[in-house]
Every structure is written in structure tokens, then in C-alpha cells.
Amino acid sequence: MGWGLFLFAGAAGIGVAASLPAPDVQQIVQRSEQAIVEDWNQAPKYSYVERDVESKRDGQPTVKTYQVVMIDGSPYNRLIAINDKPLSSADQAQEVRKLQAEMRRREQESPRERQKRIEKYQRERHQDNALLKGMVSAFDFRQMGEETVNGRTCWVLDATPKPGYAPSSRETKVLAGMRGRLWIDEASGQWVKVQAEVFQPVSLYGFIAKVHPGTSFTLEQEPVAPHLWLPKHFVTHVSASALGFINENSIDDETYSNYKPMGETLSELITR
Fold it and tell me: Which residue range forms the structural domain that includes residue 100?
């Protein structure tokens, strides 16, 4: 699940409903951080369907849909549709053969190869998790009232960089130039929606790469099991440059659905 993060807020008009006094903003944030960590630890136990829409510059969008499953410690994306059309019988059979070959390859890995593959996956998860958790320490939060989102009554918090914030890692460096808004479910403490944007340029690798204003993300989550929320929609708009002259402007729109415990065997998936 590619959850690499870039943000924008911008919603206007928040209705403030008459209700009991709101808890302290810091309590809301701390409760949400705990929920994020717990959900993050549970996520690899679930398979899901991921629909990716990718647009680069002015090119035609590419739409691909995958069944994502864990195989021996890291995910595998099995292609199941292109441009929202199921694969032909021949292409489905080819994807099954690819999955079977990958399973055999992983079974035959040396201990070092297996460790390298799993560490790569864990490193990517750590980067995303660092950004999610980094938001809590990087921003000052201001409560703006209440709003109903996807049928959930939410506290609405505006987030702005803390004065003097010092990023703890390369992954969290971009947070220094970001601001956003969070909708946090009052009942569960979960993030229902997050929007944020880069409002000032951020250099990620010295002069080599820079993220520009206009880079943004929107994340929406929903409950998929008791006490477990996982992403249902993630959109990133990236405006960046490398070496001062190579521009990369892209939009990635990812939708996640059909979460199921990984107790479902790979042999059952192969027959589909």
C-alpha cells in the first residue's frame, strides 16, 4: 500500500454543533496517534483490492486494479483489471502463472535474499509511518469545531508547523513546509479524513530535489473490522523538481476495498 504522504487542506465552512465541551486538543491528538499505531500494526494481516489511477504531466491516465496479498513477509500485487475491465481468460491465466512463479521464487530464496526483500518492505512502511506519526510532533493543532464526514461526527483540527520544528529524519523533512486539516472521529479517535498541502518549497536532498507548493494529499479512512480503520482513498498531487530543471508533476489516485484477513489461503486466490 503505497501510503507515501503529501497534503492540502482547504475546506471552508465548518458547522459548529451544540454539544458537550470538547476534550483538550492535545488529548484528541494523542488518542488519534495511538489509534494510528495500532491500526498500522494490524494492516499487514489483511489482503485488499487496490485501484490505481496515475496521471503524469498531460498524459492519458492509466488505471490498474490489483489484488494485494502477503507472501512470506512482503506484499505481492496480482493484476486483475486494466481500465476497469477484467482481464481476459488468457491474461488471467498468465497472472496466475506469475503468482505461482513468485511463490516458488520466494520459497527458494536464500536467508540473505529473504531478509533483504522483507527489509525493503519494512523500510517503506517505516517511511510512511514516520510521516504519519511525525505529523503529531511537527504541527500545532487548533480546534475549529465539529463536522460530519461520511456519517461520522468529527472534531476538526487545523494543523500548522510548530515554530522551530526540527525534522528527525529525511522522511519528516517535508513536514516543515506543510499545513493541513484533520477530521477525527469523536467516537473512536480515528482519522476519518486528512487534507494537507506544501505551502513553501522544501529541499529533500540538498540542491538535488525539491518539493514545491501545490504538492498535496488527501487521505480518507473507514472501519474494516471492529476497532480497525484502514485507508479507503488516497490522492497525491506532486509538484517537484530534481537538479533544478527536471520537473515531475503527477497525480496518483488510489482506492482500497475488499479488506479480508490473510487467513484466506493463496491457493484460493490462485483459482480466481
Answer: 25-270
